[in-house]
Design brief:
Blueprint (H helix, E strand, L loop, with lengths): L3 H14 L1 H4 L4 H30 L6 H34 L18 E6 L12 H8 L2 E2 H7 L6 E2 L1 H20 L4 E2 L5 E2 L1 H7 L17 E2 L4 H5 L5 E4 L5 E10 L18 E11 L4 H18 L4 E5 L11 E9 L4 E12 L1 H6 L1 E4 L7 E2 L1 E9 H11 L7 E2 L13 E2 L3
Parallel strand pairs: 4-8, 7-13
Antiparallel strand pairs: 1-10, 2-3, 5-6, 8-9, 9-15, 10-11, 11-12, 12-15, 13-14, 16-17
Helix pairs in contact: 1-3, 3-4, 7-12
Length: 418
């Protein structure tokens, strides 16, 4: 959430300069509403002061004073009603206004304006036509889309044998690297959260359609970012303890309400998937460097696995709601002859911290400040498995297991149809 004083001074400018980002967020009317609220509060204070003056007058009030007191009562009630109404409108607007992009974020209306920052690795060259994972996996007997659909519906998959084992191995591999080499503390949070937690990270109220809600009012988490960020909601942290780094494995659940027609085949876009997430809390002056570091931690996993990728910075029109800057890491998939997102690493600055009241003190007795929060996928299990199957496939339909992953799979070097 953005500070009210900032919106008061910049609402009109933001709406005019970045319609691709702030169009439809209510900023066009925000300045007028805020001006009306302040004027109503000023008039309300004047009317209350006049009422108090009349009440303090000694002796029997004159008919004129009685009439003025009655009129003041009605005027005060109306001003109170309107002030409360405008305050609700302002608050509702503030809750759906996205974060302000950093200066380094490219301007543009959608993903076509995203900028490639760097690439790593060469896409493999095959002397045969590479298969997509939705053909390769069933042929190996390790991905079962039909039974997944039978059990639950579209966008659910059953993993068998080596695929199930590889998923478990990837989770352990990711967590080991993050905790033993990158300095993260492992945490296993709840997989159900309340509405307050989702508001804090920016998922509510704007994106409720993308969530699964239980009858009891809990929500299935769309990512570990939600429960892990909320570990410190309504807390004041010690400045000397920053940065704080967490890594968490969780299943994730998304309705994909806004993703109609995109990546509907195979395992790229599922309603349920496993992921290891990185979350960081930093001082404001350290968050940009932390963003680069966190993104590098996700890249390191792909390099260990020998998977070609590129890093893309998202444009103002493609940037997530809470983010001030986001790097998408896209892995090469030979089966579709394209790069596909495998990790999203974002700096939210103080946006989430304001919503969740996550603050820190630089020293004892000093005024609390908002921390900066960051998070990144490190990595999603299903998409990484897909990338391994497609990049390590062979002409005979078998798949080599990346060398870095073999110790986690009992030394298994290849996957063959059984």
């Amino acid at each position: 959430m953005l500070p009210r004083e900032y919106l008061r001074e910049n609402a009109a400018r933001l709406a005019a300069e970045m319609p691709e980002r702030f169009g439809g967020s209510g900023l066009d009317e925000y300045a007028a509403l805020e001006r009306e609220r302040r004027e109503a509060v000023t008039r309300l204070e004047e009317k209350r002061r006049r009422r108090n003056e009349l009440s303090a007058t000694k002796g029997r009030p004159s008919p004129e004073a009685i009439a003025e007191t009655r009129a003041l009562k009605e005027e005060i009630q109306e001003l109170e009603r309107r002030t409360e109404e405008v305050e609700k409108l302002l608050r509702a607007t503030e809750e759906i206004v996205p974060n302000v992009p950093q200066e380094s974020v490219p301007r543009g209306k959608d993903e076509t304006a995203n900028r490639v920052e760097r690439t790593w690795g060469e896409p493999p060259k095959f002397d045969f036509t590479p298969q997509a994972h939705w053909d390769l996996g069933p042929a190996l007997g390790i991905l079962d889309f039909e039974r997944g659909a039978k059990i639950a519906g579209a966008r659910f998959t059953v993993l068998n044998g080596a695929a199930a084992r590889m998923s478990r191995a990837l989770i352990q591999f990711f967590l080991d690297i993050h905790t033993q080499e990158h300095g993260y503390r492992e945490v296993l949070p709840p997989f159900l959260v309340n509405a307050e937690s989702l508001f804090s990270t920016g998922n509510l109220p704007k994106f409720e359609a993308d969530l699964f809600r239980t009858r009891e009012g809990y929500y299935l988490i769309p990512t570990a970012e939600v429960p892990v960020t909320n570990l410190h909601r309504d807390e004041i942290l010690e400045g000397r303890g920053l940065p704080i780094r967490y890594a968490a494995y969780t299943p994730c659940f998304r309705s994909e309400a806004g993703a109609a027609g995109r990546d509907t085949r195979g395992m790229i876009r599922q309603h349920q998937f496993d992921k290891v997430e990185m979350v960081m809390f930093t001082r404001p002056e350290d968050s940009n460097a932390a963003h680069e570091e966190l993104t590098g931690h996700a890249e390191a996993l792909l390099r260990r696995l020998g998977l070609p990728y590129r890093v893309v910075v998202l444009s103002t029109g493609d940037l997530g709601f809470s983010s001030a800057k986001t790097y998408d890491i896209e892995v090469w998939l030979p089966g579709v002859n394209a790069y596909k997102e495998i990790s999203s690493c974002s700096n939210f600055e103080s946006f989430q911290a304001r919503r969740g009241q996550i603050r820190f003190r630089r020293a004892e007795g000093e005024k609390p400040e908002y921390v900066h929060t960051l998070n990144g996928s490190g990595l999603p299990v299903g998409r990484t498995l897909v990338a391994i199957l497609e990049n390590y496939q062979r002409a005979d339909g078998s798949v080599a297991v990346p060398e870095a992953l073999r110790p986690y799979m009992g030394g298994l070097a290849e996957i063959r149809a059984s």
